[in-house]
From TrEMBL:
Record text on subunit structure and interactions: The glycine cleavage system is composed of four proteins: P, T, L and H.
GO cellular component labels: glycine cleavage complex; mitochondrion
Protein name per Swiss-Prot or TrEMBL: Aminomethyltransferase
Pfam families assigned to the protein according to its UniProt record, in alphabetical order: GCV_T (PF01571), GCV_T_C (PF08669)
Keyword Signal attributed: no
Amino acid sequence: MRGGLWQLGQSLTRRLGRPGGGRRCFAAEAEAAPELKRTVLYDFHVENGGKMVPFAGWSMPIQYKDSIMDSTLNCRANGSLFDVSHMCGLSLKGKDSVRFLEKLVIADVEGLRPGTGTLTVFTNERGGAIDDSVITKVTDDHIYLVVNAGCRDKDLAHIGEHMEAFRAKGGDVSWHIHDERSLLALQGPLSAPVLQFLTKDDLSKLYFGEFRTLDINGVHCFLTRTGYTGEDGFEISVPSEHAVELAKAILDRSEGKIRLTGLGARDSLRLEAGLCLYGSDMEQHVTPVEAGLSWAIGKRRRAEGGFLGAEVILRQLADGPTVRRVGLFSAGPPPRGHSQITTAAGEPIGEVTSGGFSPCLKKNIAMGYVKSGLHKPGTELKVVIRGKANDGVITKMPFVPTKYYKPT
């Protein structure tokens, strides 16, 4: 979603503060847009005070009864439960599924151990990002991945087109789109202790980026220790008929400390963690190198290439890109997408792609792209908002330290 969810959340907060604003106007919007899809938790969201808004073709909760600020802080202190069932999970199966996928993504999929995964990027022929995705090698002939809701149609068309050509040459790969499943994201320091109540498997042996199939609350689930907040947590793929029941069990077990949380806080959390939002911080004209994701390009892939746009990307790895994604602090109003970034002397050098006020740091944070050579931490700059230049400085990301659960 161009411009990010933070702006949408702030707009919602202002509207809720006006007489006659709030749920009524959003209910009217939902009624005026019957084409919006609903997750199986839609009624559960509404019953719990969810403020539903259109997002990527779905009616999704932007926030609940608490503010986006409070939701963000509670996730860091206790935990959050997000409905992310609008995202698209799919499985690739067949003895050539790894070889097929490596034609489309930058990751060293072959080098993953079964039961482990990584963030990767689907690229086009120019090296630009079609989408980012978390992929998991379940077994040597089964890959599970989740793609962004707003990119579903183009991603499936892209994968399907290449799969058809691959299979026409004798390749053994097929796919299944998991529309029969829902996806819950449980994030924050209480996520593991609470989830442990609901499964017999020892979660202390499951580390960041690892995947397991197991019973949770008596139902067979896919569990990945990952998330989009910078906190320890899990994404749980559950058969849709059991999704509401599982959500209730998690909330009940937390004794009110883990809260249902909407897309507004999800955006502020991922921004604090320095994570890209596709459509804002990454698009089809931006390469993984420019986006600061060179680490996701496996060593073997750097040597061999073999993925779409490899020539462009490998040349950027060797020579350096002309622009780079950076983090920054700024004074004045919170920066927004498309805010111009200039040197102290006023020379344009780039623009903000995501920005807002950090609930945890109590200061403005943003990420954006600037010319190479002006990207180093400590570089002073200006951020232009409504015609006024505000002081800023480039800083390292993440803005808030991550707490991923890894072996000591």
